[in-house]
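queue> holo job accepted (nicotinamide-adenine-dinucleotide)
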Amino acid sequence: MTTLITPADIARLVALHGLPALLQRLAAAIEADFRRWPEFDKVPRVASHSRLGVIELMPVADAEHYSFKYVNGHPGNGAVGLPTVMAFGVLADVATGTPLLLSELTLTTALRTAATSLMAARVLARPGSRSMALIGNGAQAEFQALAFHHGLGIRELRLFDTDPAATAKLVRNLQGVPGLALTVCASTAEAVRGADIVTTLTADKRNAVIIEPGMLEPGMHLNAVGGDCPGKTELHPGVLEAARVFVEYEPQTRIEGDLQQMPADFAVTELWRVLTGQAPGRQRADEITVFDSVGFALEDFSALRLVQQLASEAGLGQPLALIPALADPKDLFAQLRPKLPSLRAA
Ligand SMILES: NC(=O)c1ccc[n+]([C@@H]2O[C@H](COP(=O)([O-])OP(=O)(O)OC[C@H]3O[C@@H](n4cnc5c(N)ncnc54)[C@H](O)[C@@H]3O)[C@@H](O)[C@H]2O)c1
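queue> job finished
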């Protein structure tokens, strides 16, 4: 039997473990898998572009497990009452190909993206970072805010969104978190001024310029999450030129990240090399670092495996008869027999 995991199951897991602890476990699981990077079969995700958005498939495997995620990105979806990003995915057994888990991944994507940003910031942000600008206050925003508050010690969030209702929603959801001050700003420039970390989480189907070189300050770390598709960027090319740039999986980020604007030989460092000590992370207090995040299949693989483990421990998830149970594996036709009593007669 395949196990079905719904958004309600993920919400139960968050309630059971607490969001800070779950984000920590997720960041640890992702980091453990990034550290064994060479063991994975990797490809850039397969994207199907349309006028209003994109639908992507994200496969990855090691010797034991295979996973894929289906995810869309439709920045105009809010107008029809749907989220910009929706996702689900499968974890399968490599030895037999059996699908073990069919899981929601919309909530899980927000959790794993925040956990990945946290993992990157731990090696790239200036130690002692306390303030973060959060540009784009939509569906992903609370997850990033709380990951950086609990996991990195961020105490002040400086918020800006072109939609004031999104910022008001974020303030409602985060108000009362002990030790977290919220400052609503009138522009990106105002939010970014003086911030140790800048997180961009905007959604727009164009080459937007959210962060310009003139906004940079020595020692800033940019966690650039929203530029994740061809023709959809957030950083001015001059920002990348002024920084050391870190990526998940270079072949995919060259196509999809803010990096798409740069020449093919523009130097970047894959995060797994920093995490395994093969390349330096931040080297100086005054250097500017950029995590050009696009979201890589391995983060969903790690998340699916952790969800499988935690759901099994908590007795969550429903058995799902997705694959026919056959007494004789060569007699697939037996599945139809009860429904076709008159087959022979016909
Ligand atoms: N890198 C990753 O792993 C990853 C994972 C998930 C989502 N994403 C991307 O992150 C982005 C945010 O996702 P979401 O689910 O929160 O989307 P969302 O639509 O819920 O929120 C996006 C917000 O950005 C705001 N915005 C748009 N243009 C802006 C601008 N110029 N200045 C300030 N705010 C602006 C919108 O008003 C909206 O509130 C999307 O682009 C999505 O594709 C990346």
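queue> The longest strand covers residues 65-73.
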